[in-house]
Specification:
Two copies of one chain form a homodimer. With about 280 residues, chain A is α/β, with parallel strands linked by helices. Chain A has nine helices and twelve strands. In chain A, strand 5 (about 135-140), helix 7 and strand 6 form a beta-alpha-beta unit.
Chain lengths: ~280, ~280
Amino acid sequence: MEKIRRNERMSAMLKILTDAPNQIFTLSHFCDLFGAAKSTMSEDIDLLREVTRTFGLGELETVTGAAGGVRYRGTVSPRDARAYIEGLCANLSGVDRVLPGGFLYYSDVLSSPEITTRMGQIIATAYFDTAPDFVLTMETKGIPVALTTAYALGVPLVIARHNSRVYEGSAVNINYVSGSSGSIQTMSLARRAVREGTRALIVDDFLKGGGTAKGMVDLMHEFNVSVVGMAFVMATVNPEKKRISGEKALMTLDIRRSGEDMTAVVKPAAWLCGQ
Amino acid sequence: MEKIRRNERMSAMLKILTDAPNQIFTLSHFCDLFGAAKSTMSEDIDLLREVTRTFGLGELETVTGAAGGVRYRGTVSPRDARAYIEGLCANLSGVDRVLPGGFLYYSDVLSSPEITTRMGQIIATAYFDTAPDFVLTMETKGIPVALTTAYALGVPLVIARHNSRVYEGSAVNINYVSGSSGSIQTMSLARRAVREGTRALIVDDFLKGGGTAKGMVDLMHEFNVSVVGMAFVMATVNPEKKRISGEKALMTLDIRRSGEDMTAVVKPAAWLCGQ
């Protein structure tokens, strides 16, 4: 192979690392790929660490030890995260998106690849240290943000369903009380979808009473899986008391009524503003 | 700002471009960001074009004209696409994944961030030239690959639902005949989700009879939207005749029975092998 220049090598290396977020690559891997010495690779990585930091493009981390190497994490700084969520809140607040019955229309936000990618990075940043083995969501609207979170964390996504389907094979079903309607519903997950003794991060689109979230926690217990955290795109201000605790939402939603008029007040959640 | 070296500038530029696939950035944007001249930026881009080509990391394209600039497309070469899909087929073929009733278990594949990202790039590569304005899918299992396809194409994702929900606002409902069960089902999409006169690419996980796909085409006609293409992760070999035509699947599925035993034969689709 022709001799590769540092600028080419660095660009390719950063692209390869960012295509596989949170995965550790050994130095040897890059030495072989580029036909360069370890010392040269180390210098490249030092330079790339500076680049990503300077331009707010996430972080390169060197991991020491037997399974060591270098990994990319698409971390978002507290300031950038807050600014981004504030922008979203401005888009979602007001009267335009309030539907009859006091519901907020934000399906477009929840299925936007660009927005969910950023939200996934913000959620992942908060949970890297908890080292989940997979992300769990409940169909349907939380799937995109759960996928992007799983991508940023470098782990698989597991999707629980409303009913067990023939094409999922043997499944574990649990009943739970839906927080919004108070009715009993069923949640189902294929037995082969999850390994015992692993760690789950729950990600979903909407938290109101917490019934569905509680159901997901119970479901994980059935699989002997520990829940390391729970993240939501939106949490309602009311009811203040949820059936779960310790969760992180990105935004809070308050629908204020004044006669016939309803206004959505959407704000960044407190944990995003604390830093 | 301190003077930025070419290797740092190029790495950052490629990262910024690849974070927003298929979006055009003007040269001026990068000139401002890096405090460099247009001629320098052009040289950087030429070098990056070579880098991405050499390492199979997609393509940088210069777009001329008033709205011109440079864009990144995560294109996958025919050879790489075929090799990747062949690897998936090897994983999915055999007896282990066949469930009672002759269904194939591949939910793990459909919700893997890593696999769906690659599948999305392969589908997008086939449809860049059709210039869709958005990707349409039908809940639930196709959502991840539809999201990654939309991300690669740089367009929004729109999700049709089984029933209209209160929190979607006014919706268009259509009835369609489910290909697998022959029963009449309802498909629903919020009015505000789609603009008239735009172009849709349909992406879904599974194609058997084509009833659901036909329903999505009919739904788009209700919105006065043209369908520029249809892509599926998996298409069954039987029935050979589908209710739609012109679709591209990534893989074909044939469940072969021999007494009590069932074996899945999963192959790359013909269009992936033709080149």
